[in-house]
Amino acid sequence: MKKAYINLVITTLLVAAMIAAIIYLMSNPLFTVSLFSTNYLNKTFVYQATTLVLSLLVVLITALQTKFQSVKLLSIRNIDGEVMPEPWIGITKKNKDTWKKGGLSLTIIISAVTALIIYFQVYRSGVIQTLTVPIFLLILLFALTNSFVEEVTFRHTFTSIVEYHNLSPYISKALSLITFGGAHYFGTPGKIPGVLLAGFLAWFLAKSIHETKGFFWAWLIHFIQDIIIMTALFLTLA
């Protein structure tokens, strides 16, 4: 048990270091490019490339902590599992579902809430760019890498340690909620609505990894949210 909590402390420090790196790299890119039509796209490319490398280091450290058992939780083939009751959000023993059946519905609901918040926080500032097919494909790539980086950092780390040491899933859900939700106060969406949405999303996606023993729903749901957010940012930033 002592080793389990030591690993939790190490992981929490690792996530804290990654948060610090993310915040720093957002405003202090390690290099610059002029490959794309807007400053936002060029900066995002640099940020994604840099944080992707860091996230692979996080995967390696977590793997070493768990004797590589954590790698199993990165599987995107595990898409099913029982959704455990959560009465406070309406999931009870009587109406509980499986991830394979209910995952898509939950994805749509979460995405609709994200889109609504993004509309009020971002779109109302005015659209100044035109979205083309090549640009949208680039945004899809950025959303794919960004969602991977953040899921590895904020979900896979904590859930892997908890699963490896047979601890309560509530530990990883809580740690993910606190770190991811707190980090989004200055993010997009931001302020209190951003913290609440990101915190719930963090808790929910950690739940999905525990219950499916895989990465599929966490990555997919986060990926779709990032498509919504990054598209809005492209359309409204120079």
- Give the biggest sheet: none
How many independent structural domains? Answer: 1
Helical coverage, percent range: 55-70%
Please report the total strand number as a whole number.
0
**What would you call the structural class?**
mainly alpha
Multimeric organization: single chain
Distance between the termini: 52 Å
- Compute the average pLDDT: 93
In N-to-C order, the SSE pattern is HHHHHHH
Strand content: under 5%
Uncertain residue ranges? none
**Cα gyration radius (Å):** 18 Å
Molecular shape: globular
Helix count?
7
Would you write up a description of this structure?
With 238 residues, the protein is mostly helical. The chain has one domain (2-236). The chain is built from 7 helices and no strands. The protein has helices spanning 2-27, 39-65, 99-121, 133-164, 169-183, 191-212, 216-236. Helix 3 runs parallel beside helix 7 (216-236). The longest helix is centred in the middle third of the chain and has 32 residues, at 133-164. The mean pLDDT is 93.
TL;DR?
The chain has 238 residues and is mainly α. It is 70% helix and 0% strand.
Attribute tags:
238 residues; mainly alpha; 7 helices; globular
Element layout with pairings:
Layout: H1 2-27, H2 39-65, H3 99-121, H4 133-164, H5 169-183, H6 191-212, H7 216-236
Helix pairs in contact: 1-2, 1-4, 2-4, 3-6, 3-7, 4-5, 4-6, 4-7, 5-6, 6-7
